[in-house]
Amino acid sequence: MSESEFSIIGQPLPSIDARVKVTGEAKYVEDLKMPGMLYGKTLRSPIAHGRILRVDTSKAKRIVGVKCVVTAKDSPRIKYGRIVADELILAEDKVRFVGDEVAAVAAVDKDTAEEAVAMIRVEYEELPAVFDPEEAMAPGAPLVHEAANNIAFKIQLSRGDVQKGLGSADIVVQERFEAPMVHPAYLEPVGCVAFYDAYGVLTVWLPFQKLFPVRSLLSRALNMPAGKIRIIQPMVGGAFGGKIDQKPPAVLSLLALKTQKPVQMVNTRDEEFIAGRGRVASKIDLTMGIKKDGTVVAKRTRVIADNGAYSSNAPATLNTMAIRPDNMYRFQNLETEAFLVYTNKLPSTAFRGFGNPQMTFALESMLDILAEKAGMDPVELRLKNVSKTGDVTAHGWKIRSGGLQECIERASREIGWKEKRGKRIPHRGLGIACMIHVSGGRTAGNFDGSSAFMKLNEDGNFDLLIGEGDIGQGARTVFAQIAAEVLHVGVHNINISVADTAMTPFCDGASASRITFVGGNAVKAAAEAVREKILDVAAEMLEASKEELLVKKGTVSVKKSEGRTASFVEIASFALNRKGGYPIMEKGTFDADDEKVHPQTRYGNYSGAYPFAAHIAEVEVDVETGKVNILNYVAAHDLGRVINPMAAEGQVFGGVAQGIGYALTEEMTFREGKITNPSFSDYKVMSAESMPPVKPIFVETIDPAGPFGAKGLGEPTLVPVPPAIANAIYDAVGVRMKTLPMTPEKILRGLEELKQKS
Amino acid sequence: MKKKVKLKVNVNGDWIDKEVDPRTTLLDFLRDHLGYTGTKRGCDEGDCGACTVLVEGKPVNSCLFLAAKAHRKKVLTIEGLQKDGKLHPLQEAFIQHGAVQCGFCTPGMILTAKALLDQNSHPTESEVRKGIAGNLCRCTGYHQIVEAILSLGGVHE
Amino acid sequence: MEPLAYFAPKSLTQALSLLQKHEGQGKIVAGGTDLIVRMKKGLMSPRVLIDITGIHELRKIERDELGGVIVGATTCLSDIAENPMIRATCPMIADGVSVIGSVQVRNLGTIGGNICNASPAADSLPSLIALGGEIKIVSQEGTRWHDVEHFFVGPGQTVLKASEIVSEIRIPPLSPGTRSMYLKEGRVVGVDLAVVSVALALRMKNGGLCEHISIVLGAVAPTPIRVPTAESILRGREVSTDLIEKASHICAEASQPITDVRSSAEYRRRLVRVLVKRGLEKLCHKESDQG
């Protein structure tokens, strides 16, 4: 634990944005009002698959107050997509899922827009649809796009020799694990405001995670130069991966371009479930072999992932599934075949962890199955295989700070693993699960970095201009802490700009838990550059060499010479007010020391730093109702260095909450491609009453590349939750749950099967 | 031709006279007619609690509350909680305990908590959790929210 | 959108006259927690709303001369859940009402609304039926009483005519020594619609003989249902574990659950058996008496 080594790093400072949020002042996108603002509404397909024969917007256009109605022909009709370009702004020849966007209206108020949408007549020729990815891959299945066998994306990789490995194994097990689509369910529905002004600039106020990437997506879809599109991030009401790639900004931009008026469009909550893109559902077939002593000797994986109708961010998810969890252990022999398959359901996308939770559920459950067969303690099995600092994994990941062993050991001690397993209480059990994640990754082009501008104002306060934004996780506060630490000031002396593609330098935004590591390093670099400049000027002012200078609380002084000091205020003025003067401002750029993986083999050191975690759940199962009660939960995270313990704990509590939902209660259910539970009354997320006690533990391995040693934390906190609970349920009642969510009905069925077997 | 209803309502201490379409919910009225955008629309169907305001001191989902029903009643929104720039102790507690992440659930959560503490100044943890069960939060996992509320006189069990 | 007219009458007479005047188009609204959601989803489009929450006489909780409890139809659920008299005299009513929705919903929703909405899963109904509650119905023709048990004819359907308004609910006095319980299982701990609910009222004579038993199931049939066949095997007998087991099986058989987005019929049947068994076991061993 870092103590007084730093004055601000490691302090549980309240979020710098908390005050405006608790007073109601914070402005989210639905709060924005502009004179003459119109309201947009989208017409969605009622069928899962069909040809569009005719669209008649005439009646809608005639309604008083309707300013424009757009269909595909009002757009450039350029296919775009985050990774695979397979979608249009509005459907043209076909609709491919219930909810697919077909037309949109801009009107003077929401009621009128809704009325107009209801008056648009579309004639469809319904086509046979396919909803299950395995069925979609089979010959003769209806084709959602033109892709053969509906395969949107495929990954095939191999390391070492799996055949040989399996041959050498003492124990081999094969199982299938399944997980459904779940929804990020951020409290703030997706919305945006767009305005195309007289300068020819389209400004979109968009509470999304990655402003520059969405700008380039819109640039392609709208056939407009990226520099003529400006994305500004208002306060974001939660995102969790779900606000990277969604349709509304594209549709709204069309309405803005046509009307040349500000237009606002916000999803209703049921639109969120119908068309709002959730987690990639997965079917994972895993075959693993171990030696008697617990050494894993082979892992063969086959993934069938449900892409939904358009690929969106799903290919990135497949990539994660196929590679990520392997790296937390010293696996050598790996073979993975992963398919992302089109179905006639809403597009799947990223959600906290991308594909890591899906594969970690499979792998960590399997390890417990193997441990039992080997007669080994699940903790011991993991410790036998764990990756360590200095390892280069089978996929080429360089583990520069590897705290997984310590996470496992501390979590076990905290929950009382040995004692509780020694003193069995009926229907109670413990389960452990581990995870590895990334802190950014070299995916977008060949850049895995961030940049920031910093400038010193004449009053001694600093402006920090950075485009990484804040999605509620507290990025801005972390940036302020880093900058304040470097400059020896308080966080209140750092003003952080809004993320704005016109004002803040290029960066990738929030995903891959990169913000603290990549963004933080850029902030640190910018702050250090400004500090160096301040020292340059101060050296001049104080007639000393830089080595003789000391920075402390907004002043620079000459060591060993009490009287000779200059405040930042004085330094700022000195630099500016002279011939050849200049305001003190600097930039910082960081690009992670990782590499672009090989396009076919996908081998390479993907990220600049890898966080680890070990979670342990203690559960009690009611064998008459099948209900699972989580008695205790411990989450040990190697996050390099804790920048803000209060914020870090918040990530643990929040990620574990989402993980428990994924494990036990959340599922988007469909009938013939139509979602049957599009509301919070039937899509059950955790409430204050349903949360168990959660104990966060932080392991600080001080990563050599992280800002002050910090690595990512945002996504890791969800990743190991389902398998920790699954393993605990098995330990409690001997029922091995292989599909999520682990509902009471499934557990009872499992108990029935156990009874019948014996 | 929409028929309007006369509405005389006290919002955050000010009496307001307006005419509204009967369909208008209190949520729409507060946000769109009065500009009190602190009250949030999370689902518009009474499931998430983000739209919670206090009517006669009691928390209700303003998305289900017809504005016309607020006639002659007192409504408190999040904007009305601070006095002369001084934050309510709950607001301070939320800030200090890390109970605010994205902040979207926060206004509704704070008002529900205020009503809870006004009615029961020493709630137990389970009373707090039951009391805020109608306010969903997807960011925080609730722990720090509960701690913030308990810090103002609650009883840890 | 069609125009909507809104009235807030100050008396029952006024309300009834508005109902008659807007024959067929008028809808009584109290809290609106069910109605407003339906209107927003386009499932209902009334032309006239008659808001009866301004009628003072409809909002009350008081004792009647016979020792029963009268609750006005527009009394909000939170007032009922917290009312000391209700907690003291018929706590299972409070138990049922206090798990309806969230505190926000309970501050707005009313007992009359919960009854007239007639959801098979409504949490106030099983307890009202178990205690032999009665509903007072007023119309321009006069007043009539109807027992809660037979007030419902199907999901969302009651015997209430379009010209009638529910004005109050009466819960008859409970004999001293009656123990009661309302059990609800949702999908999750916390705010949820009932997957299965069970209301139990039991009175035992000295020696463990069952003098009075009432078993009502919610969310497992088109309406809440009493299970007289289960009650009869317990009435007058000593309540043994064996009999409790039998009664719980009878209840499971008697239920007619459906499979829906919340649960399967099979699971609901099983939960009925478990809840009835656990509820009866608890009631038999409870230390403190009520009433």
Descriptive account of the structure:
- The complex is a heterotrimer of chains A (758), B (157) and C (291).
- Chain A has 758 residues and is of the alpha+beta class.
- The longest helix of chain A is centred in the C-terminal third of the chain and has 28 residues, at 515-542.
- The radius of gyration of chain A is 27 Å and the shape is globular.
- Chain B is an alpha+beta fold and 157 residues long.
- Chain B has two domains: 5-80, Ubiquitin-like (UB roll); 89-150, [2Fe-2S]-binding domain (DNA polymerase, domain 1, Orthogonal Bundle).
- Chain B has helices spanning 26-33, 89-96, 106-119, 125-131, 143-150, and strands at residues 5-11, 14-20, 52-55, 58-61, 74-76.
- Helices cover 33% and strands 25% of the residues of chain C.
- In chain C, helix 9 runs antiparallel to helix 10 and helix 10 (241-254) packs antiparallel against helix 11 (265-285).
- The radius of gyration of chain C is 19 Å and the shape is globular.
- The model of chain C is unreliable at 286-291 (pLDDT under 50).
- Chains in contact: A-B, A-C, B-C.
- At the A-B interface, helix 1 and helix 17 of A face helix 2, helix 3, helix 4 and helix 5 of B.
As laid out across the biggest beta sheet of chain C, the strand order is 4-5-10-6-7
Overall helicity of chain A: 25-40%
Which percent range describes the beta-strand content of chain C?
A: 15-25%
The total count of strands of chain C amounts to: 14
End-to-end Cα distance of chain A, whole Å, is 51 Å
Tell me, briefly, the overall form of chain A.
globular
Give the CATH H-level superfamily of the largest domain in chain A.
Aldehyde oxidase/xanthine dehydrogenase, molybdopterin binding domain
User: What is the CATH T-level topology of the largest domain in chain A?
Assistant: Aldehyde Oxidoreductase, domain 4
Stretches with pLDDT under 50, minimum 5 residues of chain C: 286-291
